[in-house]
Amino acid sequence: MENAPPPAEELRLIDRELAQLDARRALLLTRRGWLLQTMRPVAAAPADPARTARPVAETSPPSAQNVLLTLGGILLAVAAIAFTLVSWGHLGIGGRALVLGAVTVTALATPALLLRRGLVSTAESVAALGLLLTVLDAYALHRVAFPGTHPGTYAAVASGVLAALWAGYGPALGTLRLPVPAAVVAAQFPLPLWALATGSSLWVTAWATLATAALDVAIALATKRPDVRVLAILGAVTTGGWSLLTGGWLSVSAHGPSLAVEPALLLLAAAGLALCAARRAPASAVATAAVAGLASVAGVGGVLRAALPGEWAVPAYLLCAIVLLAAVRTRAPHGVRTGLAYASGAVHAASAIWAAPAVILTLLRPAAVLEDVWSGVPAQDAALWGTVAAPVVAATVAVVLRAAPRLLPALDLPRTTADCAALALAWSAAVAVPTALSLSYAPTLVLQLLTATAALALAVRPPRTAEATGAAEDAGAPAAPGTPETPPGAFAGIALACGLASATSAAVLGLATRPATFAVLGVLVAVNVAAALLGRGLPRAVVACGAVVGTAGLVAAAAAAAGLPAHQVALALLAVPAAAALLGARLGRHPVALPVEATAAVAGLLAIVLAVPHPPTLALVLALAGVIAAGTSVRAERRPVAGYLAAVLFVAATWVRLAASGVEWPEAYTLPVTVPALAVGALRRRRDPQASSWSAYGPGLTATLVPSLFAAWGDTHWLRPLLLGAAALAVTLAGARLRLQAPLVLGGLTLALDTLHELAPYVVQVVDALPRWLPPALAGLLLLAVGATYEQRLRDARRLRDGLGRMR
């Protein structure tokens, strides 16, 4: 028979064997690596470092050359400028012409010789110096030969001449790259400088910059050099953008149709130029065509705006954007059509945003009624500027969005997105009508109710099934391409949000008079109930909750109309959660049941809040709410929540009732509850040993220990704390003996708090008698001790947690 070693000895043997295995494994891995290195072929011996090594240059030759040439060109340019500005007056006319002409000709001719020798970088630097000298020549020529010429006119002519000379000089030498881009930059100035020099109007200056933009577009389309194309595009964007901004500002500020024609022509010319560029350059066709579309809408819409009243300006631009959509059906390139569609869409979006304030104003105006409920019909407000056209704009955009995916399939606009946006805008148009037409109270209220009803009906409408789609196709009405078989959830969500917004606004507006309140809430409850019965899915649950809210409002309004105070209105409100509990029992596990009961529970919470100022009524409200919760807990699916809620409500009702009655010995009322509760818990534990002690004994113990603890902390005598401490000690010992978590924790906490209350005065006296430095010192020593034995304390805490976790 073999005798097993003690556990400690066996653990030592296992650790020693593992260490030996690790050492052996490391030795084998080292040997394996040496063998692999030995089996590899011997690499060729490296060459002699002394022969192969070369000095490494700190900079590469091209970069060093470019730096030197750049520095040299800069120095020569500075010298030329200093000579022209400072030393020019010391020479006569002949000397000036001879020196400057000789230097310029030399600088321009030298690159040809350098290119023959292959010195391209040097030639570029000298050519740059020559171009700068031509600018100085022009300046010197103005000072000597044309001193009386207007500086702006001379600068315009000089920049044009220099641009032509540089454009010819670069191709003449062949490989020089700098002169042509410099010519493109110089070509941006002649026409704008000429317009400014002649004192022309802003309109003429805009035409001059537009002509410059046309020249830039032609250069960008004709050239094959990327650098020249980039500069030309930048020039076209700058000058063309200035022309568009000028034309737009002139169009907006025009006070009549005749004055708006000139900027319209400018904008249309810019639009034509952009369209030509878009057709010739497919890479940027979308952006360029979008600019063309916006320019054309701004031009034509500006003329219409000047001919119409001020508040109809946005509809005028919107009409032009709608006409622009017709271009999508042409045979233009795809990029052009896409850009024009984007331009029209941007105008539609801006128009919808412009109409939004009228909708928001209509929805928020009823909030003024909340200041004085049932005070009478509010005064009729006059229509604000722009509100008359707001519903027209919103409705027009809605129609376009609804029809665009069907009539213009080339737009590739998702039908679901378009339908959702169209629905929101149609609702906005309907909401803004009362403000736009300054309708009186009754028509406004009726229109808002109709809007809410229509939106909720769309939200809960039955889905279009595949069978219905096939029947429609068999009847000769084929579905449009891309039509989904069922309405998307987004559409129902938008309709639901719109309906709830209108319903809320109508309900608030109905608070102006008593009859209107009952009429509006009654209609809304009926509409929500009908929608809940006919609908399905999430909207059905939401409208069912809306019916509960409306019912609560009707109950509160009826109680207020009867002259009941707030705490009695709370009693009436409890009818809502009671009815919801009965309805939930009838619905069972229906998806609508839980949202309805949760909404009704909020009404119950409101009843509790209303009853707070009157404690006797609050106790009654809490007790009745506990009865409702207890009745709900009979259902198995609601028992885990409703059961605990009923217990809390009953306990709270008891405490409030005791506080309201001025009872100083709550044990006389709590013990009759605790004893049967503990007996019921014991019976439950006998039938179900796995039941938790918290559910079995927790409510009964809490019903007595917590009120008694509050009373003991406010009691100046010794009897109550002594009895409470003895009872808590007994409960704690019983919990420890029976290994029950709830009695142990509740009794221990009560005993600790009761003891702390009794010992607190003596502790305070002791602390006051000690030196001031001693409590911090003791606290520091305690922290040091805990830190030194932290691991042990942590293990103790874990053991305590595990011990409590093993209890029931």
Describe the structure.
With 808 residues, the chain is an all-alpha fold. 78% of the residues lie in helices and 0% in strands. The protein contains 32 helices and no strands. The longest helix has 33 residues. The radius of gyration is 45 Å and the shape is extended. The two termini are 45 Å apart. About 6% of the residues have low confidence.
What is the element layout, followed by pairings?
Blueprint: H1 7-39, H2 49-52, H3 61-85, H4 93-116, H5 120-144, H6 151-173, H7 179-186, H8 190-197, H9 202-222, H10 226-253, H11 257-280, H12 285-307, H13 313-324, H14 334-364, H15 390-407, H16 415-437, H17 441-459, H18 466-474, H19 489-509, H20 514-534, H21 537-561, H22 566-573, H23 575-587, H24 593-611, H25 615-632, H26 639-661, H27 667-687, H28 693-713, H29 719-738, H30 741-769, H31 774-788, H32 790-806
Helix pairs in contact: 3-5, 4-5, 5-6, 6-7, 6-8, 7-10, 8-9, 9-10, 9-11, 10-11, 10-12, 11-12, 12-13, 12-14, 13-14, 13-15, 14-15, 14-16, 15-16, 16-17, 16-19, 17-19, 17-20, 19-20, 19-21, 20-21, 21-22, 21-24, 22-24, 22-25, 23-24, 23-25, 24-25, 25-26, 27-28, 28-29, 28-30, 29-30
